[in-house]
Write the structure tokens for this entry.
Amino acid sequence: MKRITTVFLAALAALVAQQASALEPGKPAPAFALNGPEGTIKLEQYQGKLVYVDFWASWCGPCRQSFPWMNEMQARYGKQGLQIVGINVDARAEEAQSFLATTPARFTIAFDPSGVAPRSYGIKGMPSSVLIGPDGKVLFEHSGFRPADREALESRIKAALGTVK
């Protein structure tokens, strides 16, 4: 009984620690190193830029709506320091490739079939996005994507670009 209690308490402590590591504005964003079409994609390589990390999956309907908007944001604000990184969470690469064939990305894509990055970011649904400042700290997070979100998200990006040197 004592061993079961010890195991239970250890599991409970791990769960509490995991919940405590959820994203908080002003805290450092969790690092990641993931495979992409052109090699390894690491969050740290974008230090000094405003990074919009978007978690997506091939089965996600709203992701099909968010990709054209993210393409537009990357084209409009990339020269001012915005870098969009789309992290795909499909377990099968061919599903992600099929999505990208019909819904192309004009921003950086990374693949995380094991789901390590979304777990470290506390992601609960697709799509979810996190805006990370040039200092590597979380500015805000957003779940879902609706056409009505476009203006508010773009306003956040424009305001945060003022911090990019």
Q: What stands out?
A: Confidence is low (pLDDT under 50) at residues 2-21. DSSP finds five helices and seven strands in the chain. Residues 103 and 123 are 22 Å apart (CA to CA).
